[in-house]
Write a structure and sequence with these properties.
heterodimer, A: 114 residues, mainly beta, seven-stranded mixed β-sheet, four-stranded antiparallel β-sheet, B: 114 residues, 12 strands
Chain lengths: 114, 114
């Protein structure tokens, strides 16, 4: 596997379900990110992890709970979501504090909340 | 706070022709990075080109080049010899030199006609 992978690619869940999104990076990076992409809106940064420590929470509701057990894996735990949370969730990684610190993205998880 | 504006919601170009996508940004910082990302229908966000603000020379990657005007806070993307595979949503993004948060524009849909 190369680059940034995300599973599942598609997820449909009810408002009372609990599910998790997984992201894995194979680039040796030390920073990982969650973004939300809704229709007709710019990408919104949700969380940033540098060296496994959360360094940014962009006022995200507590029904989204991130977890970064190591520098290669990032999870987004979901519970009691709302229909307006339906979106494409993108994970990215970068080598923070080095050069342009370019972020590389995964293919995304298309989430539908019923 | 920094903002990124892409004033063209949609653009069209004939195959083999040249097209320029516009991007302006607002910042009070002097050191930062700018990026263009491409998001095809597969939804995978792909880095197209990046520019360091301290470099006066415009970045070039094969058929893709930028016109970086620091004083005007403008960062346009020129695609030469357009190909059908260039059809996608293009996002302009800004990152401060001291941080790793990307600020995205709203995107421009590029259609390529054969």
């Amino acid at each position: 596997e190369t680059g940034v992978t995300q599973t599942p690619r598609h997820l449909v869940m009810g408002m009372t379900n609990k599910k998790s999104l997984k992201c894995e990076q194979h680039l040796g990076h030390n920073a990982m990110y969650w973004y939300k992409q809704s229709a007709k809106k710019p990408l919104e940064l949700m969380f940033v992890y540098n060296f496994k420590e959360q360094t940014e929470n962009n006022s995200v509701p507590s029904r989204f709970s991130p977890e970064c057990p190591n520098s290669s894996h990032l999870f987004l735990h979901l519970h009691t979501l709302q229909p307006e949370d339906s979106a494409l969730y993108l994970c990215a990684s970068s080598q923070a504090r080095e050069g342009t610190d370019t972020q590389y993205f995964g293919p995304g998880t298309r989430l539908t909340v019923l | 706070a920094q903002t990124v504006t892409q004033s063209q919601p949609e653009m069209s170009v004939q195959e083999a022709e040249t097209v320029t996508l516009s991007c302006t940004y607002d910042t009070s910082e002097s050191d930062y990075y700018l990026f263009w990302y491409k998001q095809p229908p597969s939804r995978q966000m792909i880095l197209v080109i990046r520019q360091e603000a301290y470099k006066q020379q415009n970045a070039t990657e094969n058929r893709f080049s930028v016109n970086f005007q620091k004083a005007a806070k403008s960062f346009s993307l020129k695609i030469s010899d357009s190909q059908l595979g260039d059809a996608a949503m293009y996002f302009c993004a800004y990152r401060s030199a001291g941080g790793n948060k990307l600020v995205f524009g709203a995107g421009t849909i590029l259609r390529v006609k054969s």
